[in-house]
Design a protein that fits this description.
- The chain has a single domain, classed as CheC-like (Chemotaxis protein chec), CATH 3.40.1550.10.
- 46% of the residues lie in helices and 27% in strands.
- Strands 1, 2, 3, 4, 5, 6, 7 and 8 form an 8-stranded antiparallel beta sheet that branches.
- Strand 3 and strand 4 form a beta hairpin.
- Helix 2 crosses helix 7 and helix 4 packs across helix 5.
- The chain is globular.
Length: 214
Amino acid sequence: MNTEAVSIFSNDEKEILQEIMNIAFGNATANLADVIDIYVVLSVPDIQVINIGDLPEFINNAIDANGKTVIVDQKFRGDFNGSGFLVFPQKTSDDLESIFDDENNDSYGNNTGAAREKGVLIEIGNILISACVGKVSELLNTFVTYSPPQILSGDSNDENSWLNNFGPNQAAIAMQTVFKFHKQDLKGFLLILTNQESIGWLRKSLNDFMNSYE
């Protein structure tokens, strides 16, 4: 966790938040594994405070995309308010479509091309983002509502695809992990981004969570 995040959270708060995110990311990948029967390896979750204007470079560096990326974006609203981003390099998204179809060969039988790829990625994004955010909400005794997931795709340098839902000078708490599919040369980046409006609620909820175990 970087120094900005440390200045916002106490040591106890940051440790609890990181553990909650570890549980939430694990829950998300377990749900995905139930669908496509592939073991997912997670990096240690990291929490940072970033400027939204730095988001494209931040994510590109995290997954070494170096080119075209495919992003699934799903917004959530409530006390815990923000967006989930599931990011893949283009090659990974193509390979994921093949794997997903092998496990669900009847799901997209009538679709081809771009529509088929979009359907696969939206389903994967919905599984991962909603499972992760849902577990955080459960552990912190709140609930959220979700907007339908959407695909944002284009060159990694195209900032408009990343920033159209945020002010360019807005800061946010980024909770992220890089995941790899075991025995597959595939990886992606799962980012849960919550805005400044949620910080007060988040700190109180983390302290309530800690106090419940004392």
